[in-house]
Design brief:
By secondary structure, the protein is an all-alpha fold. About 75% of the residues lie in helices and about 0% in strands. It has a 3-stranded antiparallel beta sheet, with no helix packed on it. It starts with a helix and ends with a helix.
Length: about 575
Amino acid sequence: MNVGVVMLASLVVLGLGFAVWSRRVAGWLGEDATRTTPAVRLQDGVDFVPTHPLVLFGHHFASIAAAGPIVGPALAVSFGFVPVWLWLMLGVVFIGAVHDQTALFLSMREDGRSIAEIARSTLGKAGFVGYASFAILLCVLVSAAFLDLTAKTLASRLPVSALGLTADTTAIATEVVDGVVMARVGGIASTSVVVVTLAAPLVGWLLYKRGANPWWVSAFAAVICVVAVGFGLAAPLQLDPAVWVSIVLGYTLLAGFIPVWVVLQPRDFVNVQLLYLGLVVMVLALIGCGINGVTLDVPAFSLEEAAARPGLGEVWPFLFITIACGSVSGAHGLIAGGTTSKQVRDERHARWIGYGGMLLESLLGVCVLLLIGGALGKAAYDHAVWDEGAPGAGVAFALAVGQGVFKGLGSPDGMPQIAALGTVFGVLLLEGFLVTTIDTVVRLSRYLLEEVWATMWPNRPALLRNRVVNTMLVVGPVAALAFTSGYKTIWPVFGAANQLLAALTLVAASAWLADRKRPWWFVGVPAALMSATTVYALGSILVRELAPGGARGVAAAAAVLLALGVAVGAVVLRRATQRTAAA
């Protein structure tokens, strides 16, 4: 099948979803442009900050679009093209984007409180504590998995032969490792990340202290991205992965408690310019590939092959939890109700930011599927992801971007340079999606922890009211897990937990809407489907990891998550029974 045709069909499906279904959802929720949002009413200059929708969309999209829509589809290619594409399309239109839009809207209607806090008002104290505990544990898993992947990406090297270059190339900085000439692709991303982070406070100052026009600041942010990449190509910074784990942990600790406009939001705003460019380049490259006759080089269905691969399994439930963020993500509800809802200045923006942001993330997942399945091909994919000692899904994505840019936008004479620079661009995109999520997830974990303390211990000591202390209480477990487990080990349990949290969020939304006599089936039906899938997945992971040779830490996490999920489900059933009896 021609990859360009599939790309165009995907754009049509996503466009119809936004034009039709998101409007219906907004109507069922009761969108009202005349209501004053929490960002305006509770403005404090730290967390509640009314934000231009262009800036906020960039922050939100950069925060939600992490490694999930890259690594998930890259691993899921093993199931075959058809099931992956169908879940990316149908899952996002009817479940994932609805989840994000609804979570954002409900949080705005509840004074910027998290979905966990909203669960307390609808499911009681026990429901709140269970939901919040589940969410915090998920955040730790997300941060640890992405932190490990970040460190590996920033330290990555690739043989110049894999980029189509010769040993004497001058296009990219190289070094000799065990007699092999390696391109320092991770070092280029490393320097770029440092430059963008250092420039973030300047962008925040321009936006919030000088009141600069956001469109002009967007152009300035794009220039910063270009300069950052230039510095990366000129002076790649190569450090050990363990060192990068420590550096990124230090950054996320700082970003977790200082005012949101100083680093976190402006850094996302700068970085998202590169992400936007990356999406445009990938879409155009795939259309170009289609024009040049590139077709999919992966099977339509390969369910038996996927079932035999480590970390995957039967198509149900493992396809759905492997793709995770590309279709549905519970972590998005935490971000929507944690940082984003405190910055929306008009209720009408919830549809564009919540539903629209998720569609854009699904588009990223489609690009990954088509680039790997078409431009890279089955043999190169298997070698990069599944062979012993393979560099992993992130590097497979980067190589696929390089081949896609060459085959769709390049020419035979320029192949080595175009493919190599395209691969570097893929690494920069992956790293951009990673770091912008870790800092946001750590910050919203701090919000959740503060809410738990306030609920369980109203007269808690000043120490537990301190933003720095609460951030450290989150970063500590993240560090412990990141230094002991790789992302492939964590990914299955993270995916299952992520989807189950989405189901719990949709359950809380159903109760909130039912209490207000509003339609709730559009979130209730997806909640039931996702609950069944993810509970079964967590049980399967628990059994698998308890077997000889399994990862005991992952098994423990799966057991705790399964217990919390079942406990929250029990609370939901009890509350629903009480409502029925009262009626």
